[in-house]
Amino acid sequence: MKIALGVTGGIAAYKAAEVLRVLQDRGIRVQVIMTRAAQEFVKPLTFAALSGEKVITGMFSPGEEHEPNLDSAVEHIAVAQSIDALVVAPATADILAHFAQGIATDFLTTLYLATTAPVVVAPAMNVNMWNHPATQANLEILRKRGVKIVEPGAGYLACGMVGQGRLAENDAIVAAVLEVLGASHDLSGETVLITAGPTREKIDPVRYLTNRSSGRMGYALAESAARRGARVLLISGPTSVTPPGAAEVTRVESTQEMRDAVLHLLPQSSILIKTAAVADYRPKSAAGQKIKRRGPMTLELEATPDILKEVWSKKTSQIIVGFAAETENVLENARQKLLAKNLDAIVVNDVSREGIGFDSDRNAVTIITRDDVVEVPETTKWEVAQRVLDQIVKLRQQRKSPVKA
Ligand code: PMT
Q: Are residues 66 and 134 in the same domain?
């Protein structure tokens, strides 16, 4: 696992050395990037010696001093693609503003725009700068974008004032990094079977019935579960998104094929998460040849097999989690599905809302178990996946703990 650690220009820059050391102790490779201002507080040599890697200090001469060349000009792209997370500690008000507004003026700000990896920022600054509406507005933008913010602590600040603004403790920063990396390994020993994407029901050799599912939600769950130590079996309907490399992927098209794959893999699984948007109906019979245009036509549909219902009759001790895509009476319908399909949990999203759910990088869900309701306001699908897996870990712990008399 590899992260980029951005160090920006504040008195707390020296504390980044300790963050670096703790992350390395966890087996994480760290590429340090220092802004020009950070280099006024700490010399790059300190981080180079600790990390064992060259420190990136500028856009066109990323490492040690040398003539700008093409390699260095595109290094931010290479770094962006190779990291599992971007962490900035300490993060100044200035870097938060650059990130929030998408202004790329140096290596770190360009890397932020170029990477799709999760981002963690640990701000540190003067209390008035922290409380300023501009800083708070920038933080809100970043929060909504899914950036994890490790809030600064309160106390005496280097500027002599008292208040919030001190870089958070190492433990809090490292915990946030491990969380976005899904590196807590709380799913080790589990085999998680995940379905993702749509199904396609054939009408004739060139046409089919389907829906707008992109597979992103299921893929985010698959990637997070793998990072949290699980073996991941992913059954995917047809999508154009690349599935996570760590998952063992079975490709299917129709609901029938998805059903067969789920029932085949269920016995080797300890957890099933059914994120797929499965067709409820399919043409009663698919035409052998392309249907010719002949005025109005009627397509006779029949119900597809309800995979989750079949799973119930075959399951042993697996934890079973369904998803529900609703457009009205969202919570009530989801609760009914939880009971009707005998699930341990259901994750419901209101897919009538703009910008979330189907074919988006973002979602907002409610996770309902038999005795818990957890709201996850709009965020990235990666973050939603973390919250769903947290609930599954909780369900697992409840099953393990002895029942009180
Ligand atoms: O793929 P994305 O673009 O990232 O979008 C994510 C999503 C919107 C598809 C996802 O978040 C979601 O809501 N998935 C469930 C969609 C769905 O089919 O919901 P449903 O309410 O129709 O079905 C309820 C549950 O029954 C689901 O777990 C479904 O997999 C399962 N089902 C449905 C029909 C069927 N024949 N067999 C089933 O097992």
A: yes
Q: Is residue 367 lining ligand 1, measured as CB closer than 6 Å? A: no
Check pocket membership of 380 for ligand 1, CB cut-off 6 A. no
Q: How far apart are CA 76 and CA 158, in angstroms?
A: 32
Domain end residue (candidates: 136, 154, 181):
181
pLDDT score for 73: 59
Distance 198 CA to ligand 1 centre (A): 8
Q: How far is the CA of 277 from the centre of ligand 1 (A)?
A: 3
Which residues form the domain of 54?
2-181
Chain centroid offset of residue 356 CA: 14
CATH number of the domain enclosing 243: 3.40.50.10300
pTM here is 0.73
Q: Backbone dihedral region of 204: left (phi > 0), alpha (psi from -120 to 50 degrees) or beta?
A: beta
135, 157, 181 - which closes a domain:
181
- Total structural domains in the chain? 2
- CATH code for the domain of 120: 3.40.50.1950
106 and 142 share a domain? yes
Position 69 confidence tier, pLDDT thresholds 50, 70, 90: low
Residues acting as catalytic residues: 159
Q: State the sign of the Cα–Cα–Cα–Cα dihedral 360, 356, 187, 169.
A: positive
pLDDT beyond 50 at 405: no
Looking at residue 65, its pLDDT comes to 46
Which residues make Cβ contacts (< 8 Å) with residue 304, sequence separation at least 6? 199, 201, 255, 256, 278, 279, 280, 281, 282
When the pLDDT of each residue in the chain is averaged and rounded to a whole number, the result is 92
Does 37 have pLDDT greater than 60? yes
